[in-house]
Amino acid sequence: MVYEGHGAPEEGSEPTGTGRTGWPLWEVFIRQRRGLSHTHAGSIHAPDAETALQNARDVYTRRSEGVSLWVVPSVAIVASDPDAAEEFFDPAADKAYRHPTFYTIPEEVGHM
Amino acid sequence: MTGPERFQSILDEDGKIEPKDWMPDGYRKTLIRQIAQHAHSEVIGMQPEGNWIARAPSLHRKAILMAKVQDEAGHGLYLYSAAETLGVSRDELVDLLHRGKHKYSSIFNYPTLSWADIGAIGWLVDGAAITNQVMLTRCSYGPYSRAMVRICKEESFHQRQGYEILLTLVNGTAEQKAMAQDALDRWWWPALMMFGPHDADSTHSEQSTAWNIKRMSNDALRQQFVDMTVPQAQYLGLEIPDPDLSWNADTSHWDSGPIDWDEFWRVVKGDGPMNRERLEHKRKAWDDGAWVREAAEAYAAKHADQPRRVA
Amino acid sequence: MTVISRDTLFAYVLRHGDDCLILSQRLGDLISRAPELEEDIALANIALDILGIGRLLLQYAGELEAEERSEDDLAFGRTEREFTNLLLVETPNGDFAHTMVRQYLFDAYQDLLWNRLVDSSDETIAGIAGKARKESRYHLRHSRSWVVRLGDGTAESNRRMQQALESVWRFTGEMFIDDEIDRAAAEAGFGVLPSSLSDAWNHEVTTTIETATLSRPDDSSIRTGGRDGRHSESIGPLLAEMQHMYRSFPGASW
Ligand SMILES: [Fe+2]
Ligand SMILES: [Fe+2]
């Protein structure tokens, strides 16, 4: 597909990551329906919080995707490090006794 | 596991790479380039169709067209966001477009000359884009793949509304039917060119395939598109402008004639009918808006301590 | 219902439909020309809302007359003199300051209008107003926040906003003039007197202008005529473009 570009990258066509950044980036979270929690929908640019909310509404709820919105400055998100994923998440893998299916209950006892 | 090992093992399991994962420099650069060009294409793509918003032949069609062009702005926005997870800013990418350093899909360098072109674009151009984008929902970079899922959901109305426009035209007056045929005549070959050069001449394909960015070859996607589109054209009673088009019983595919690659490269290199106009329009809007963007930032800085609403 | 009040109802519905139609036509031209992608999307949302309300009103107007013209007949088949929109909405697109000032002054008016028309004695009008008022409340929030930001932004943005305000202000007086149709509509209970919206509009607008550190232009000059089909020259090209297909291919469906 044409999006891939053709031939060698042209001189100066690589972004340097040092250009101007414009309006700050915000992460958008949407509550799809009452009773559900907010989930991440995407991001938008906006100069301030009030505009960020409006932009989030205009961009991400055009097809009735939500009933409530959160916007959070992207810089405020603290993420876990993929390099620490093993020590963070692997230790949970061998604790099968935390899950109900680990236990055998005689059928006669009924649903539990 | 080291970063490079983890990267490879995720690819081996057909998993997704996420923004903070280690990734080869080439993978990052390829993605930035591809996602940016994809985003630019969506945004430049607003212009040819935007050209008919004011003249849409009914209020019903006007509303649909506005919503469609708006969607394309959204697609650009989602894609720039995906690129931004790779450590570049949207402004920087837009600047590269404005300075002619980045390309966008050449299809948008053709003019929309009649209302039927709006039908042909939805049917063929969005149709071709969908063929490509469905493949990209399976690409290995998480944010790109998720953007594609969202875009594909929105995209399906685009193709259907285009086909419906043409259906109305072919069932209308002789003049309307001729308008539809003329649009197909002009958009067919550029639509096939959207899939890019033949596999043998496609420079980046091998590496992109190894990285699970590209999941199907240009020619395979193009064939899929032709096979899907020919029966749709027949239903419309329109003639595809390819004398060599024929059904191949051995392969169960439609064979098509040669693509004019000279034209393709000419338009890619900037000498299409509308290259200059598209970029000028885009640049002008951006320059005209500079004072607005600055003022909004200045206001935000002045009122930075204003209380924020809590959820 | 007497014949006269049916004509009045038609004219009343049509004028508000025309306001929406003409403004959405102007806004449609701005999509792909906004200062940021987010704003392109926002402007398209506003244009779509307003076009949607305009269509409901034109459809209803069509049902009210003997000829039963369709929304498209009414939009594309009338001449300049038959359009009864306010002059404000037809002002040609300028810079983003002009877009937002025009939008804000009109949103503030329409929001008040719909809030009153939800109590219209005419069920269809009340229903349309019920839908429209939710939309106009959001439009007003959007345009007001831009007026405040650009007024109180940089020296240049303040200058452009003041200039836009000065250029558009003379078209605002027309929104609050009662004519025969308005008086008959108000009397019959399906309409409101425009003059009765004036105080609340002035309060809203004056407050915002102040917050935006702009100054309110004086009211010495008021342009009128839109409601009688006496327009500015700019509506001609607008209609020529909008009506091109309908007039070039008479009777065709699309
Ligand atoms: Fe798209
Ligand atoms: Fe599309």
Walk me through the structure.
- The complex is a heterotrimer of chains A (112), B (311) and C (254).
- Chain A has 2 helices and 3 strands.
- By secondary structure, chain A is of the alpha+beta class.
- In chain A, strand 1 and strand 2 (38-45) form a beta hairpin.
- By secondary structure, chain B is mostly helical.
- Helix content of chain B is 65%, strand content 2%.
- Chain B contains 13 helices and 2 strands.
- Chain B has a two-stranded antiparallel sheet with strand order 1-2.
- The radius of gyration of chain B is 21 Å and the shape is globular.
- Chain C has 254 residues and is mainly α.
- Chain C has one domain (6-216, 224-248): Ferritin, core subunit, four-helix bundle (Ferritin).
- Chain C is built from 10 helices and no strands.
- Chain C has helices at 3-28, 37-64, 71-76, 87-90, 96-117, 123-151, 155-169, 180-188, 198-211, 235-248.
- In chain C, helix 1 (3-28) crosses helix 8, helix 2 runs antiparallel to helix 6 (123-151) and helix 5 packs antiparallel against helix 6 (123-151).
- The interface between A and B is large, with 43 and 64 residues.
- Residues 72, 126, 155, 158 of chain B line the site of one fe (ii) ion (FE2).
Strand content of chain C: under 5%
**Radius of gyration of CA atoms of chain A, rounded to a whole number:** 23 Å
Report the mean per-residue pLDDT of chain C as an integer: 97
End-to-end distance of chain C = 36 Å
- At the fourth level of CATH, the homologous superfamily of chain C is Ferritin, core subunit, four-helix bundle
Helix content of chain A: 10-25%
Taking all Cα atoms into account, the compactness measure Rg of chain C is 18 Å
For the record, give the distance between the C-alpha atoms at the N and C termini of chain A, rounded to a whole number: 55 Å
- Assembly type: heterotrimer
Largest sheet of chain A: 3 strands, antiparallel
The general outline of chain A is extended
CATH level 3 topology of chain C: Ferritin
For this structure, what is the CATH class of chain C? Answer: Mainly Alpha
The chain-level mean pLDDT of chain A equals 90
Please give the number of β-strands of chain A.
Answer: 3
Number of helices of chain A: 2
N-to-C order of helices and strands of chain A: EEHEH
